[in-house]
Design brief:
It contains eight helices and twelve strands. The chain is α/β, with parallel strands linked by helices. The strands form two sheets. Strands 1, 2, 3, 4, 5, 6 and 7 form a seven-stranded antiparallel beta sheet that branches. Strands 10-9-8-11-12 form a five-stranded parallel beta sheet, with helices on both faces. It is globular. Bound molecules: adenosine-2'-5'-diphosphate.
Length: about 280
């Protein structure tokens, strides 16, 4: 794992050259497939924890006209609404149009950020409940990194169960470190009340490398292993609420499981018992 210089170590750039440009302030690589970065936040940007924005870089020049167009993708904001910077958690796809370039960004570089946040993984889209489930695979953890640092999450719920399924143990580093940092963060404790982090139950699993808990979360739900491990009876539409963000397969399978427990899908305009968003950049 490597942590690049922070922006304080960099010479200041006088003029931004891209439209809607923000400056990269931190980059951290976890594996050859995953990294996180932080950028400056536009002063006017307001968003709800869990939402996403379009970010990107200028694409290659058009071979005929020589013109460049922005290459944008939807990225969940991984930082909470109160943070003065914005954080993103990204996959690196070697032949991906955007992430093949984005993975090389350095502190001081510019990225394009369209300041129009949207999304359904927001508290407003859920009816009141007691227990909140986050189901994530891979970089689908990003919106939950935001919501886990959002005071309302702890105000609204008695317990937050965070499941994260990845292929390998190293791919769990971001969620494991984030949750550990939340547990030891004095500022968050002051903001949200001492002991708030005791509400978090972290349930990481791997599918292709041995670890303490192996298997897809969907299989562990179906065969009851997850409930047995956590000492929980099951999922009930009276008490349980869920947010889902991962691959298309995860989203489809979890939907079916949650509907099987009697939960109904919600939206901003019509709150329900669970909400789903796909992890966009695959
Ligand atoms: P698997 O290794 O069995 O495919 P990816 O890195 O491809 O985005 O996948 C991230 C994780 O999501 C992997 O551990 C993968 O498991 C898991 N996964 C893929 N499809 C599903 C699904 N339908 N339900 C649950 N987990 C899934």
């Amino acid at each position: 794992m490597t942590l690049d210089m922070t922006i304080a170590d960099q010479p200041a750039k006088a003029v931004k050259t891209l439209p809607d440009a923000q400056i990269v302030t931190e980059v951290q690589h976890y594996t050859d497939r995953l990294f996180r970065f932080r950028v400056t936040r536009p002063a006017s940007l307001r968003f709800r924890s869990g939402e996403f924005v379009m970010i990107g870089l200028m694409g290659d020049p058009d071979p005929k006209l020589g013109k460049q167009k922005p290459l944008l993708r939807a990225y969940s904001i991984a930082s909470p609404a109160w943070d003065e910077e914005l954080e993103f958690y990204s996959i690196k796809v070697q032949d991906g149009p955007l992430t093949s370039k984005l993975q090389h960004i350095k502190v001081g570089d510019e990225v394009i950020l369209r300041p129009k946040p949207v999304g359904t993984l927001v508290h407003d889209a859920l009816l009141p409940g007691k227990r909140l489930w986050f189901f994530a695979t891979g970089t689908g953890f990003a919106p939950f990194a935001s919501l886990l640092r959002e005071p309302q999450t702890y105000e609204d719920y008695d317990q937050i169960i965070v499941t994260h399924t990845c292929r390998e143990v190293a791919e769990l580093t971001y969620s494991a470190e984030l949750i550990e940092s939340i547990r030891t963060d004095e500022m968050l404790a002051e903001l949200m009340g001492e002991g708030f982090a005791d509400k978090i139950v972290y349930y990481p699993t791997t599918t292709r490398e041995p670890s303490a808990k192996m298997g897809r979360v969907t299989d562990l739900l179906r065969d009851g292993t997850l409930f047995k491990d956590l000492g929980i009876e099951g999922i009930s539409p009276q008490t349980d609420r869920a947010m889902v963000c991962g691959s298309m397969g995860l989203n489809i399978d979890i939907k079916e499981i949650l509907e099987g427990f009697g939960l109904r899908e919600g939206a901003n305009s019509d709150p329900g018992e669970y909400v789903v968003e796909k992890a966009f950049v695959g």
